[in-house]
TrEMBL record:
It comes from the Bacteria. The keyword Glycoprotein does not apply. This is DHA2 family efflux MFS transporter permease subunit. InterPro entries: EmrB-like, MFS, MFS_dom, MFS_trans_sf. GO terms for molecular function: transmembrane transporter activity. It comes from Cohnella xylanilytica. The keyword Cell inner membrane does not apply. The chain crosses the membrane at residues 20-45, 57-76, 88-106, 118-138, 150-173, 179-198, 210-228, 240-257, 278-301, 313-334, 341-359, 371-393, 414-429, 449-469. PROSITE patterns: MFS. It is found in: Cell membrane. Residues 22-475 form the Major facilitator superfamily (MFS) profile domain.
Length: 496
């Protein structure tokens, strides 16, 4: 029998009557983590002018957050399994809020970059612990599907809302407000968590695999650093090649270590679960497609269509709205068609929307050229985020919930870093080619962004094919299991 990490008294306050309120608290924290990866983008010009940061240092305002976030996620997930999901969640929220306040108060580049690094490290504790708590709170398959639908919607909305909120806050209150907005939400989460979240079970005494943790953290940081710098120094520069080679060596060392360690940080056996491996593969490709999409779309709207920050943000509302509506319907689709078909169909629709978007001209009208693709992309993303996350945590034991949650976030972050680097390179190469052929700058830029959108569509289509091939769940098997489980429970209920 599988040993549960949920204490016997957890169900009363946290896991039963108030668990939907608990989900709201967890989702709020996750929203901040996802939002903070993109909300700073529009504030960069104003921030750079006041703190006297050049273009190279401005890029590090983003990189300083992404590096510790992506690099520490696996360790954060394992620490949550070891020391308690609620305990690590609260520590992550507290650190994130304090670092956000420090970033808003920054009067130098060094201060700001340090605060951003602490934000990223805190997010690496917060994110896997939060998703692990969701899987603990909602053990029933039907309820878990609904909860993960909300969770996936929050993740998608956070990605889409960054540009909107960044523009509104920067225009109205100045660049520090994009950091200060995290503080009151963090305080609310900290105050509500002890009342709503289940208490942690007694900590296990197994030692942590610190050599493995050091190897994988350094490997992921090296990989993300290599990819993040390609736009500035190129793919064949010594910096990129050295960092990439170091990343490969460290990750290989990590795999060897995990195959031999008595208490591995990441038991490799978890990948025998086809749902986990297929879900992480999907989230890797979804991360690559969406990160490149939102970056290219934001720049296209501002550089080619000459939208200001506020308008560029507002025009992404239909995409976010479609995502929210669809995310709520995904659990029903999963019960009817299975996770495999729901995820595959969502990725195909996402790819179709991206291909449609690539056809937008340099003088595009929002209503005629952008609204339709935005809605298709929003629907596809809503389905993909929810069903991909559900697939990646399906069938995982309670004691590995933090690990599985850390893997999901790691896959998405690494996919985002690789996708952004590759799609940016494609876009710049196409733009330079068109400029060399005598095209005007607006048309050349539009052609470059079109390649970025097509590249993102290719990632989504590859994801659809791989999920369809590797995940062998029958279309309606999950619905049957759920219905059978509910029927058995009803038969066991004593009559009134």
């Amino acid at each position: 029998m599988r040993k549960s990490t949920v204490p016997s008294n957890a169900a009363a306050p946290g896991a039963a009557s108030h668990r939907w309120w608990a989900l709201l608290v967890l989702a709020l924290a996750q929203f901040l983590v996802v939002l903070d990866a993109s909300i700073v983008n529009i504030a960069l010009p104003a921030l750079g002018e006041e703190l006297r940061l050049n273009t190279n240092l401005l890029s590090w305002v983003i990189t300083a957050y992404v590096l510790p976030f992506g690099g520490l996620l696996l360790l954060g997930g394992r620490l949550a399994d070891r020391f308690g999901h609620r305990r690590l969640f609260l520590a992550g929220v507290a650190g994130f809020g304090a670092a956000s306040a420090a970033a808003g108060l920054a009067d130098s580049g060094a201060w700001l970059l340090t605060a951003r690094a602490v934000q990223g490290a805190s997010a690496a504790l917060l994110a896997p612990a939060a998703l692990a708590l969701v899987t603990r709170l909602f053990a029933n398959p039907r309820d878990r599907a609904r909860a993960l639908g909300i969770w996936g919607a929050v993740a998608g909305i956070g990605s889409a809302a960054g540009v909107l909120l960044g523009g509104v806050l920067t225009s109205s209150f100045g660049w520090p407000s994009v950091f200060y907005v995290n503080v009151p939400v963090g305080i609310l989460v900290i105050l509500a968590s002890p009342l709503l979240l289940p208490k942690d079970a007694a900590a296990e005494r197994a030692s942590l695999d610190m050599p493995g943790a050091a190897a994988v953290t350094a490997g992921i940081v090296s990989l993300v650093a290599a990819l993040s710098g390609t736009e500035r120094v190129g793919w064949t520069s010594p910096q990129t090649l050295i960092l990439a080679g170091l990343a490969v060596a460290l990750i290989v060392a990590f795999v060897i270590r995990e195959s031999r360690a008595a208490n591995p940080l990441m038991p490799l056996a978890i990948f025998r679960n086809k749902s986990v491996s297929g879900g992480n593969l999907a989230m890797f490709l979804i991360g690559g497609a969406t990160t490149g999409l939102f970056f290219a779309l934001s720049v296209y709207m501002q550089q080619v269509l000459h939208y200001d920050a506020m308008k560029a943000g507002l025009t992404q509302l239909p995409l976010a709205g479609a995502l929210v509506v669809v995310a709520g319907a995904v659990p029903a689709a999963v019960r009817a068609f299975g996770t495999r078909h729901t995820l595959t169909g969502s990725l195909v629709l996402l790819a179709a929307g991206l291909i449609w978007l690539s056809m937008a001209p340099s003088d595009a009208s929002f209503a005629a050229d952008l609204l339709g693709p935005s809605l298709a992309i929003g629907i596809g993303l809503g389905g993909a985020f929810v069903s991909g996350t559900e697939l990646a945590v399906h069938g995982v034991a309670d004691g590995e919930a933090g690990l599985a949650s850390g893997l999901v976030n790691t896959s998405q972050q690494i996919g985002g870093a690789i996708g952004l680097a590759v799609l940016t390179t494609l876009s710049l190469a196409r733009t330079d080619s068109l400029l060399g052929a005598g095209k005007a700058e607006p048309e050349a830029l539009t052609g470059g962004f079109a390649w970025a959108f097509l590249g993102a569509a290719a990632l989504a289509l590859i994801g659809a094919i791989l999920v369809f091939v590797t995940v062998r769940t029958k279309p309606s098997s999950q619905a049957v299991v759920i219905d059978q489980s509910i029927s058995k429970l009803k038969r066991r209920e004593p009559s009134a």
